[in-house]
Design brief:
137 residues, mainly alpha, Integral membrane protein, transmembrane, membrane
């Protein structure tokens, strides 16, 4: 049996609970898709992308936590980045899609688009750190 540190166990438990939020996002998306919530084509596209990124990145992020615990000797900041960088991206990237599309009749992203490069940076840094940690262990 894989033993997780207390921090990893707490992180994974919290992240698993966020799946309920992703599920409610799916319900919202269903309401948008059936016309119950008015949205522009741009908003529908961004809402779908935000929901998809949330689900995929949370799943990948959980895998990264387990791999950082089980398959690396990373410590300190590097362990944190390898274990949770993707999870930080799982907040920033979907947030960028949803928040930048908010507002009645919006047809282009607002200032929350700044979350995209921040999320991409955490995603890249997290997976590269984890991969290097695995290769060096």
């Amino acid at each position: 049996m894989l033993e997780l540190s207390d921090g990893a166990r707490l992180t994974t438990a919290i992240v698993l609970l966020t799946v309920v939020g992703i599920e409610s996002g799916g319900f919202f998306l269903l309401r948008v898709g059936t016309g119950r919530v008015p949205a522009t084509d741009f908003q529908r596209m961004f809402f779908r992308a935000g929901h998809a990124h949330a689900g995929v990145l949370v799943t990948l992020g959980l895998v990264c936590v387990v791999l950082a615990e089980a398959a690396t000797a990373l410590t300190g900041f590097w362990h944190w980045l390898g274990a949770t960088g993707v999870l930080v991206a799982a907040i920033l990237l979907p947030g960028g899609f949803f928040f930048s599309a908010m507002g009645a009749g919006r047809t282009e992203p607002n200032g929350f688009r700044i979350l995209f490069p921040a999320g991409a940076a955490f995603l890249g840094a997290g997976v590269v750190t984890l991969a290097v940690g695995m290769l060096l262990s």
